[in-house]
Task: inverse folding
């Protein structure tokens, strides 16, 4: 099975090539699709990771922003409350004061409870210059709390901050009950509407637990941190995943308020950083996503895509083999039929014909087989015809040596008697007979054919007492070396003399012209004799029996035409143009052979 698959894929057959082509197409499409899918999936994975990063940071920033607004509202409610009489905070002054102080305590406790952030309010305190105070919150209270608060080194600085832009800072708790805790203080001066002439303040200490508890919900390993405007880290998770330093935090703080996401290198590792900074509180929330975690997800995507690619190739191989086999069946039939043709079986097979391209080839093969069979029959017939023609020519010949000796004797008698005319005729006749004795089917040059024709013309001029003239024009001169079947032009000139000029009873002109036409040689023999009509011209090439007994070669125009077609093909041979009383022109077309 393994060898069979190997042969199907690596073989030199059309089937193997079709399978390879199909596999190449499937592989290319699958590879392109997989690469595109991987790139798109990787990009989407990065975009999803970045979007999740931004949403998470914005979510925490929004949560902390809401807490900040709620805490600020509590402080402002306490500071602006018209019923808040700072003079009534002295619990030891009277029972009425104690009652009012208890009411104030319940009020600020309700503020803490209603806000929803009560568990993160370490201390909410309203106090006056005499350090009289009421308070709420989860930290235990002490009579020293007002003094501890007013003695804190950040007290004056917090008072100087505006309500509209109160930037939070993180400080150590000044109270005895929360010495180890970090607070984010909110401090406002009380708007005193009572008869009390001294100052008063509202203090709210936000526990850093608010931020730490929120970050506990994080389920991943990204570094998330909450930082104050002064660069102090309020809360953070996964602190050791990426070691950012103070310079990094300062860089983020210098970006100002707002939000952004960007890429940077931290400790040689590529990371995505997203941050949001509250414009009022100044609290900065940022998250760092190492890009190798996104790459790990991309690797999983790559593995899945490679699995899909392998599946596509496997399915493609099976389907390609199946469809190629179906396509190859008519080709196999066609090949088998062609093998039969090569062994001489030209039988037409309808099974190899169909309406598709291969069927069209099958029709062509059947047509070719029928044509070959027809040509073979024609070839056999033409060979028989050539054989019969040669027999006729041999029958027309006599012993050449007897003729040569006799003519030579006549020539010497004429020389002795000083009769130059007889010498000329006998010499030409002897040359003619020598050339004819060599046979008619060999190819000679046009120059040799014209020389042979010149001997014939000498004899005919003596016979007809210079009744005609002959003009020969060959252009270009290189055509003298062109090959032509021997004794092609003599029957044409003979026809011009006997059938054209002699019946006219006047002197005539025979013009012989040879020119090149494309890849062919065109020779025309034209006389200005009596001419003939079209029907007689057509009959002249068909009537093979009407050769005059006085003809030199006994070949005749039909035999010349037939010889041309047998030697060069059916597209070559003789053609006749004639006008009665004006001219007759016979054209010989044959391929140019040098």
Result:
């Amino acid at each position: 099975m393994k060898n069979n698959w190997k042969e199907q894929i690596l073989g030199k057959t059309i089937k193997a090539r079709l399978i390879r082509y199909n596999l190449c197409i499937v592989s290319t499409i699958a590879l392109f699709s997989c690469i595109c899918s991987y790139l798109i999936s990787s990009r989407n994975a990065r975009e999803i990771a970045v979007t999740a990063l931004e949403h998470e940071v914005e979510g925490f920033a929004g949560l902390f922003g809401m807490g900040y607004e709620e805490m600020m509202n509590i402080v402002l409610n306490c500071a602006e409350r018209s019923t808040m009489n700072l003079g009534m905070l002295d619990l030891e002054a009277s029972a009425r004061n104690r009652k009012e102080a208890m009411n104030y305590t319940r009020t600020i406790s309700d503020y803490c409870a209603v806000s929803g952030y009560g568990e993160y309010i370490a201390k909410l305190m309203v106090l006056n210059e005499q350090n009289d105070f009421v308070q709420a919150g989860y930290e235990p209270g002490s009579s020293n709390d007002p003094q501890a608060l007013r003695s804190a080194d950040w007290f004056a600085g917090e008072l100087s901050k505006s309500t509209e832009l109160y930037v939070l800072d993180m400080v150590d708790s000044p109270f005895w009950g929360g010495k180890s805790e970090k607070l984010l203080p909110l401090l406002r001066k009380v708007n005193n509407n009572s008869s009390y002439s001294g100052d008063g303040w509202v203090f709210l200490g936000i526990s850093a637990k608010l931020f730490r508890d929120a970050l506990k919900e994080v389920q991943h390993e990204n570094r998330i941190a909450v930082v104050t405007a002064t660069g102090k880290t309020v809360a953070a998770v996964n602190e050791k995943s990426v070691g950012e330093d103070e310079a990094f935090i300062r860089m983020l703080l210098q970006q100002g308020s707002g939000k952004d996401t960007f890429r940077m290198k931290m400790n040689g590792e590529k990371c995505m950083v997203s941050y949001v900074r509250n414009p009022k509180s100044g609290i900065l929330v940022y998250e760092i996503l190492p890009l190798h975690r996104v790459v790990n997800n991309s690797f999983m995507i790559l593995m899945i895509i490679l699995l899909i690619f392998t599946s596509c190739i496997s399915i493609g191989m099976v389907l390609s083999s199946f469809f190629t086999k179906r396509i190859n069946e008519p080709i196999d039939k066609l090949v088998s039929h062609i093998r039969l043709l090569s062994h001489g079986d030209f039988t037409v097979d309808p099974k190899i014909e169909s309406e598709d391209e291969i069927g069209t080839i099958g029709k062509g093969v059947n047509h070719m087989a029928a044509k070959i069979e027809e040509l073979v029959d024609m070839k056999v017939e033409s060979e028989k015809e050539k054989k019969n023609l040669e027999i006729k020519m041999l029958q027309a010949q006599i012993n050449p040596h007897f003729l040569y000796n006799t003519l030579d004797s006549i020539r010497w008698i004429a020389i002795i008697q000083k009769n130059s005319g007889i010498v000329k005729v006998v010499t030409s006749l002897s040359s003619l007979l020598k050339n004819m004795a060599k046979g008619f089917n060999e190819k000679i040059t046009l120059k040799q054919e014209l020389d042979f024709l010149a001997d014939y013309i000498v004899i005919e001029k003596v016979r007809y007492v210079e009744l005609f003239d002959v003009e020969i024009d060959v252009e270009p001169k290189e055509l003298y070396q062109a090959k032509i079947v021997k004794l092609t032009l003599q029957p044409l000139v003979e026809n011009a003399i006997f059938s054209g000029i002699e019946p006219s009873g006047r002197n005539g002109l025979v013009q012989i012209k040879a020119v090149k036409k494309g890849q062919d040689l065109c020779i025309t023999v034209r006389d200005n004799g009596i001419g003939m009509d079209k029907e007689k011209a057509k009959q002249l090439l068909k009537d093979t029996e009407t050769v005059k007994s006085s003809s030199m070669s006994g070949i005749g125009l039909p035999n010349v035409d037939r010889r041309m077609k047998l030697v060069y093909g059916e597209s070559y041979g003789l053609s006749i143009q004639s006008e009665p009383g004006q001219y007759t022109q016979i054209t010989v077309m044959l391929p140019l052979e040098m």
Observations:
- The first helix runs from residue 2 to 10.
